[in-house]
Amino acid sequence: MVEDGRRILSNVVSTQAALHALYGGVVPEVAARHHLENICPVIEKAMADAQMTFPELDAVAVTQGPGLVGALLVGVQVAKGIAFVHGKPLVPVHHIAGHLEAPALALGADVPVPALALVVSGGHTSLFEMAARGEYRLLGRTRDDAAGEAFDKVAKLLGLGYPGGPVIDRLSEGADDHAHEFTIARIKDGRPDFSFSGVKTAVLYHVRREGIVPVAGPAAATDEVRDLVASFQRAVVTALLRKLKEAAQARRPRSLILTGGVAANRQLRRDAARLAEELGLPLFVPPIALSTDNAAMIGAAGQVAFDQGRRAGWDLDADPHLPLG
Ligand code: KG4
Ligand code: ZN
Questions:
Q1: Which of 118, 138, 148, 251 is positioned for an S-S bond with 122, CB 3.0–4.6 A?
Q2: Cα of 148 to ligand 1 centre, how many Å?
Q3: CA–CA separation, 236 and 197 (whole Å)
Q4: Considering all CA atoms of the chain, what is the largest pairwise distance in Å, rounded to the nearest integer?
């Protein structure tokens, strides 16, 4: 629950990470079923935490897409039900707009625009320009895997469990990140696009060549595995920030944004802060609770969309491939 788009009244997250860990990743059908089971208790808790009742709401914001269609459908139908019963406007929100508004929510104010934003999550790796409040323009994106997906797949193949990002982050601290040189493909057609499937395959070939056997969870990680994931992490972080730097030099923004689940990564945060200093720009990174998926960021983006007059009808449908910018 968010007030004026910039103040959090409640932010309830029901995570399915433990469940997904059982399967080594997200199984769409399982995720949708759990959404259905959890959505009403989560909404009740959000209302209770904020000490609000439905009639007091100004509007109901809901993620229309992109994402897994089953999970999106549950949210859209429930939001429609609440808005319809209580006569409230229904505001459709793009999931990435939520990530892009998270820094402003954390700050309690809009960030200086134009802003250049690196959005890195399990499903997305994109560069956006926020030209003005609520105006998002896609500059570049991944051609294949998202950065977070690469973290998850590398962790899985080494037996480090799911989600892989936080584990690789932790194991990399103090390890030798120059033990191996993994290069990340550079897109040659001039677009600031990313590609992360190659580095994942490079790690896989390395593991096979060296005969590294998967370990039984992070606690069993050897120095060899720690150096390997640290080198992988360095390659990914370097590729992400190289694109951000090139785009900043070309577009001359007034601020930088780092957001999405992978923005929780400590090396990425440290190196991004160094880059921002080098470029002489302020960097806005939401705290981890607002970097990874959460409802408050959708409320923040919902307020921006509401102010722009965006409203959905009762025919609003989930769109797993909804574009932005
Ligand atoms: O934004 P998010 O919570 O959900 C999506 O919209 O995808 O991002 C989840 C992704 C996962 O791939 C997870 O491994 C990654 O963010 N992640 C991290 C870290 N914490 C989460 N990746 C690297 N380092 C971290 N500390
Ligand atoms: Zn996300």
A1: 148
A2: 5
A3: 11
A4: 63
3 state DSSP class of 210:
helix
Measured in Å, residue 128 CA sits from the centre of ligand 2 at: 15
Neighbours of 246 (CB within 10 A): 13
The CATH label, of 3.30.420.40, 2.40.50.100, 3.40.50.300, 3.30.1300.10, for the domain at 113-281 is: 3.30.420.40
Read off the pLDDT of residues 222-276 as tens digits, 9 standing for 90 and up.
999 999 999 999 999 999 999 999 999 999 999 999 999 999 999 999 999 999 9
Residues of the chain with pLDDT under 50: none
Residues 6+ apart with CB under 8 A from 75: 35, 39, 62, 63, 318
The closest of 148, 95, 129 to 250, measured between CA atoms, is: 129
Q: Topology of 2-98+291-307 in CATH?
A: Nucleotidyltransferase; domain 5 (3.30.420)
Match 């395959």 to its residue by tokens: 201
CB of 237 closer than 8 Å to CB of 268: yes
**226 CA to centre of ligand 2 in angstroms:** 27
The interaxial angle of helices 164-172 and 266-279, nearest 10 deg, is: 70
- Taking residue 229's Cβ as centre, other Cβ atoms within 10 Å add up to 27
Tell me the pLDDT of the chain averaged across its residues. 95
Determine the residue type at 233.
Answer: Q
Residue 100 gets the label, from left (phi > 0), alpha (psi -120 to 50) or beta, of: alpha
119 lines ligand 1 (CB under 6 A): no
Q: What is the pLDDT of residues 114-153, one digit of tens each?
A: 999 999 999 899 999 999 999 999 999 999 999 999 999 9
AA letter at 5: G
